[in-house]
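Notes continue from the previous slide.

Worked example: a multi-chain complex. Inputs as given:
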Amino acid sequence: MSKQTVLYEKHQAMGARLVPFGGWDMPLHYGSQLEEHHQVRRDAGMFDVSHMTVVDLKGGGVKSYLRYLLANDVERLKNSGKALYSCMLNQQGGVVDDLIVYYLNDEWYRMVVNAGTTEKDLAWLARQSGDYDVTITPRRDLAMIAVQGPNARAKALPLLSAGLQQTGAALKPFNAVADGDWFLARTGYTGEDGFEIMVPGDQAAVFWQRLSEAGVAPCGLGARDTLRLEAGMNLYGSDMDEETSPLEAGLGWTIAWEPEDRDFIGRPVLGRQRKYPQKKRFVGLLLVGRGVLRNHLKLFVGQRQIGEITSGGFAPTLERSIALARVEPDIGETCEVEIRGKRVQAQVVKPPFVRNGKRLFS
Amino acid sequence: MSNTPTDRRYAKSHEWLKDEGDGSFTIGITDHAQALLGDLVFVDLPEVGTALEVGSDCAVVESVKAASDVYCPVTGEVIAVNEVLDGAPETINEDAFGAGWMFKIKLTDNSELENLLDAAGYDALLAEEA
């Protein structure tokens, strides 16, 4: 039995096609996934992301706990509200989950983890907490709405409390501000400007309705996936998992190697992998021939298999197919993809493909 | 009230086939099928001259979500394909029973038509699947 977010009835009333995702019934689209994609690139769209889990971490030992738990270093967070993207690794250097952590004060951090991994993550958080003075509280009372697009902030701000309007207007990218149980973050998963807004569950439906009346289009998981793929952002479970090192998933930039004496889970293994010359690369692909790139399609140079697509699809902004792929380190500028037994040419590029509405490839 | 056109026949795998009266039959996918697939972004059609067996996978329609095979409802030879779909696959979303036709075929054995559903039979199938 799938769970339903507090916005479930809103989705039904707005004509959503609801599908199971990560243990939840979520909107795939409200009519046209392509139109929703363009709406976010050109104007403003909103996503119910209440299936993701907000976790509050509090206590005198929370900073040292997170410095051990995460591959990125929360020591970098100096100002209240500042966000950090990080992987949470296992002892083998595989990715347990990717997440955003916000620093609120020295005894309070807040984390947002994926829906499908929530139970595993909470068990992991508890297991690693050991002797640290930290309390871990999943905030199931909060809903979360992502409002994304070039006009997202302008449309969302007037609907917030007077206090949040003021602080929210001044908010820099990757920063957040709280007002009671409301939490406004200038973050997202689309490659566009916008907010991710945590809302008390009992106020979420009214807020969703007001956003809709302000001209923010409801968008489903379908558009969320094509938007993040164009933005070159990884999807947990497709682009990386517990068997994958962040170094082979294009996430090396999220590992804080300095200071050298910071011990974090997975560090010894990652430190060795870092020196492997045969370590795989994580690249973008543009399909040159006809078709659509899909997850798990195999890549070739001549007869040699050189990698595999981890996320592929049609990029509505580029009007062509793109992918993220894990490949051998010596791949050149092109390769071939095997689609239904036929070889089709693809160009190897560096993601992202689209950023802030601009095509980075034609 | 059903919108299923009564001037053609249907396969259980959601293709339609229409007698053009000149010895050729036009084949496409139904409106129900396109709605299930969602926005189409790529269509791979058979080549003119290809001999197709009944039930063989003869074309591929790819939506933003996934690729789906199209099965040939009859045995015959492809005599024309809808080239509009190459640049505008969304034509199938917009008009699955008309401008979104996929290819035309010359039938080998007219008796195969009897294995296909009429509009009422196809509507009954949809009601069953719903």
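Summary box: Chain A has two domains: 1-277, 280-359. Chain A touches chain B at residues 28-29, 32-34, 222, 226, 290-292, 294, 313-314, 316, 321, 340 (CB under 8 Å).
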